[in-house]
Amino acid sequence: MNAVCQTQIVKSFTKSRLVSRSLAHLYEKVSAGERITEDDAVTLFRSGDLNSLGQIASIVRRRKNANRATYILNRYINYSNICVLSCQFCAFGARKRDPHAFEMAISEIAAAMADSLRQGVTEVHMVGGLHPTLPGEWYIQLLETLRALDPNLHIKAFTAIEVRHLAERIFKLPIQETLETLRRAGLNSLTGGGAEIFDPVVRDRICRGKETAEEWKDVHRIWHGMGERSTCTMLFGHIETIEQRVDHLRQLRELQDDTHGFTGFIPFAFVPTTTELSHIRAASAVDQLRTLAVSRIYLDNFDHLTGYWIALTLPVAQLSLAYGVDDLHGTLKEEKIFHMAGSKTPQEQTVETLERTIREAGYEPLQRDSYYRPMGLSRSEAVVA
Q1: Is the pLDDT at 215 greater than 90, yes or no?
Q2: What contacts 24+ positions apart, CB below 8 Å, involve 148-154?
Q3: Where are the domains of the chain?
Q4: Predicted pLDDT of residue 89
Q5: pTM of the full structure
Q6: 68-384: what CATH class?
């Protein structure tokens, strides 16, 4: 029996035994490398067959990442939560006089990063609120100070919403000039936060006054046009419909078709506990796994899908590796945004724990850099890859 016949028999067995009849046509479509439509994605979301979703998502996962699952040694720093917005879904932001408001000094941030660098951290992930009074020089000094600590430290900072705030209210420069200013000071890549759900009706109800989807996308489009990279996100499990989730994915896929600048996609479930939307029931583990699987299948032009253990919990993150996920994010340390919303997960993980979690799920753990490439590749190799 030749290899082609053996492959066909294996595919036929997998489809007949592990994939429900109602999803068999999508299994065949994905197996053939065809792009699924928005209607197909809605069908997948509405399917009650979680095992079939995992089987189909795993086709894409294996095609792109074989048996590898990655993690990064990174440190989270939220430099301030003082913010001019009052998003209904957010428990992090504060006004200056609020008792939970905070603002870190640059020296304090530098000391925290110096300690993390001694522990082998390769990336700082840094976001904050839309601070109304911090001057542009503060942000430049912050980046330059971190860059001086280690020229090889990858500085991943600022959401597209922060960048627009800095451009329009602080630097008073066009978006591209603002990004160029930040890059000269040491910025390496943008974070993917602030996307929430792109639908304007949803945005008006959960983050009234925040920039539009087009404004969010425009920042990333400009950054990608400068030859740089970023991640992107989706906040789900609040008031959005399945169709609105799919529309969010559609817009990301279209932007990736245009720029090829996103390194990975990170969907995470809304934590309602201490927010204005605390009456909303938190997304179940099943819904989170379903969303990860559909994202992996639909976003065929993304190489990497991250299971954000802070939102998932580590046991569900481990399970997510069977639903299309190939990356468990990082060691983090002192994550504040989800925990201020009521998350009960740890604020950091050790390398040993992440590697054990990956191995127990049957995958090969591998430390990555900020471009989702195995450690040891140069930045140019990472961007080309």
Answers
A1: yes
A2: 149/110, 149/113, 149/114, 149/117, 150/117, 152/122, 153/113, 153/117, 153/121, 153/122, 153/123, 153/124, 154/122, 154/123, 154/124, 154/188, 154/189, 154/369, 154/370
A3: 3-65, 68-384
A4: 64
A5: 0.89
A6: alpha beta
